[in-house]
Amino acid sequence: MARRGPRAALVSLAVGVLAAGVAITFAPSASAATTLGASAAERGRYFGTAVAVNKLSDTAYATILNREFNSVTAENEMKIDALEPSQNQFNYANADRLVSHARSRNMQVRGHTLAWHSQQPGWMQNMSGTALRSAMLNHVTQVATHFRGQVVAWDVVNEAFADGNGGARRDSNLQRTGNDWIEAAFRAADAADPNAKLCYNDYNTDNWTWDKTQAVYRMVQDFKTRGVPIDCVGLQSHFNSGSPYPSNYRTTLSSFAALGVDVQITELDIEGSGTTQANTYRNVVNDCLAVARCTGITVWGIRDTDSWRASGTPLLFDGSGNKKPAYDAVLSALNNGTTPTPPTTTPPTGNPTTPPTTPPTTPPTTPPGGGAGCTASVSLNSWTGGFVATVRVTAGSSGTNGWSVGVNLPSGATVTNSWNAQGSGTSGAVTFTNVAYNGRIAAGQSTEFGFQGSGSGTGMTPSCTAS
Length: 467
Ligand code: G3I
Prior knowledge:
Number of strands: 17
Shape: globular
Structural class: alpha/beta
Radius of gyration: 21 Å
Largest sheet: 8 strands, parallel, barrel
Strand content: 15-25%
Bound molecules: ligand G3I
Number of helices: 12
Strand order of the largest sheet: 1-2-3-4-5-6-8-9
Mean pLDDT: 87
């Protein structure tokens, strides 16, 4: 298997010149770039955003997109349900529209995503075994072939590992077709488009000490050892109080890079505001700039109001399209390559054959000593026929060792997906319990989990029980 198209070779050459590790020194530019894409390009990188195709007709949205970004990812339009709504009948209209918008403006396109447990069309959700494996491989082959030469990098497989300690694979219909489903997807993508960069993409893989990060690391290491065609690892990097930016983020980036893959920050958003949010954005950019194989950053939306977590105001532009302090921090970090504040841990310089640190056996948060009492509140991002609910769990005066949140879903509402919690039930009275790393909450502190549903989520009043 040789994944060596002309473009891949060029990129490798550039990376080789930069040296496969860390620490790059930049010559100061004569005049500082004034947009994110132009500035990133001066660093040999891209700066992208997720795009919702139906917003391209929104002038304010399109103006910022066209001015600032040199890479796009379809927020939803290249997912399995969007591209193959009926088996073997492909609908490329919206995705093609985005690709054409991007390519006519010299933006590159990241493809998201070929194989995923979520956003499967109904016909695929109901499949299993050999039939599902074949259908998945057919989807990968058809879609990668359709976009051959137009998509620079594909998230071939998305979110295949479970949350929590242990580093297990996520249970799904795809996983139940056999543990080799991920490499089978990569081989099919490689056959269909030998020149596209093929990425594994996931969330909660930013903190180097978390078991999920280590498990993905070991899979990539194994793929490289056995010649499974993988070129890159995508870190989604959705940061908030429950899943904060870790001080060892640069270690995570450089450790994956040392395996011989590119690293891309694929869905960046950071909940917060003002200087605190700006500083975290600055740190993320500086961490990427410090790792030669961190080839680009994509933010998951343009304005705060475009975000899947709009209530957390996690993006670089406010709802009116004004640049936020976070924008200024990102642009100046790209232009200057400044040292992050606070300093991050020193990245390893070697090419480790085993993970440089031992995954923790205890959760990363400080145990508060246990006790009863917690509250939960929910914020909703709704549309006709569906919603994303973000639930904030706040510990009472004694802190928690674990928690359980009960929600009565309105009639007709169904949970389709959840994160940072273990869900039980999909309609009526449903319960979400902490996963291993977020059960312990110090007194007065909070964590967040979320779930997506169909129907209306309006009027949910969560109740919280602590242990
Ligand atoms: O807008 C349509 C509406 O017209 C239609 O009636 C309705 C019917 O279901 O769907 C609406 O679209 C919804 C869309 O969000 C609106 O923004 C989709 O159903 C809904 O599924 C979709 O949620 C997306 C979610 O992935 C799906 O899993 C979010 O936009 C998108 O930001 C989010 O992105 C994911 C990445 O792919 C993977 N990593 C996590 C990230 C955040 O959840």
